[in-house]
């Protein structure tokens, strides 16, 4: 993949997104990221590159279509091209469907699905213009296996598989690839909300007998951004130590 175009990584201020940003920069890519709030990690990178030669961050609520479009256009203008997109930003919350309120329903749908489709819509023309590129949608095993209280979250994540397969068909002729990476329970801040009893249950059901690490997921994303995966598109790669096998 060309290194002189920017890779956009949404939600790059913490957790998996932070790891994706750090690794992409280490691989020599130009990286543009966005998040609602600036974190110490973002401040560190901005201080190291005040002229935004290889890294830029913007405060952005990705559910805001007008601002998302403005962000994508600014990245393309600043760096001349866009070479990849990692749709990482998302919202995780669970509730039994019978207890679901309208506010939570709309937040899950608008953040995890509508915003992702919209920003992909804004980025895709730039990738088609280059005749190359990689789009990676970060899914979840909740979209592949049932979990009580996660029906809406799981629906937004399973929808990514259908979206990605169909989009891979649309963009493949111009060498633009679209894939899903679906992590299991990964040792991040998000996993801290899982009870110890539930964590041990998950480990017990995982053939490899451990939680996933951030590095486990980062390696797959790095591969899909690279030319080593040039003939892989329309796929969903599950990174869960065998939990769903």
Automatic annotation (TrEMBL):
<dbReference type="InterPro" id="IPR020904">
    <property type="entry name" value="Sc_DH/Rdtase_CS"/>
</dbReference>
<comment type="similarity">
    <text>Belongs to the short-chain dehydrogenases/reductases (SDR) family.</text>
</comment>
<protein>
    <submittedName>
        <fullName>SDR family oxidoreductase</fullName>
    </submittedName>
</protein>
<dbReference type="InterPro" id="IPR036291">
    <property type="entry name" value="NAD(P)-bd_dom_sf"/>
</dbReference>
<dbReference type="InterPro" id="IPR002347">
    <property type="entry name" value="SDR_fam"/>
</dbReference>
<dbReference type="Pfam" id="PF13561">
    <property type="entry name" value="adh_short_C2"/>
</dbReference>
């Amino acid at each position: 993949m060309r290194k002189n175009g920017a890779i956009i990584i949404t939600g790059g201020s913490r957790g998996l997104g932070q790891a994706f940003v750090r690794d992409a920069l280490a691989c020599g890519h130009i990286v543009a990221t966005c998040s609602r709030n600036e974190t110490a990690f973002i401040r560190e990178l901005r201080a190291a590159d005040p002229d935004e030669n290889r890294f830029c961050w913007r405060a952005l609520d990705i559910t805001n279509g007008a601002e998302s479009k403005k962000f994508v256009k600014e990245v393309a203008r600043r760096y001349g091209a866009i070479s990849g997109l990692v749709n990482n930003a998302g919202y995780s919350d669970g509730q039994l469907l019978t207890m679901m309120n309208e506010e939570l329903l709309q937040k899950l749908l608008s953040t995890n699905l509508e915003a992702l489709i919209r920003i992909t819509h804004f980025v895709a023309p730039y990738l088609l213009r280059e005749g190359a590129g990689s789009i990676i949608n970060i899914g979840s095993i909740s979209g592949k296996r049932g979990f009580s209280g996660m029906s809406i979250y799981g629906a937004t994540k399973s929808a990514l598989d259908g979206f990605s397969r169909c989009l891979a068909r649309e963009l493949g002729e111009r060498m633009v690839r679209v894939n899903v990476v679906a992590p299991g329970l990964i040792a991040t801040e998000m996993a801290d909300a899982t009870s110890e009893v539930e964590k041990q249950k998950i480990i017990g059901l995982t053939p490899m007998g451990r939680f996933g690490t951030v590095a486990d997921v980062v390696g797959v994303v790095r591969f899909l951004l690279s030319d080593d995966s040039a003939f892989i598109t329309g796929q969903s790669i599950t990174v869960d130590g065998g939990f769903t096998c």
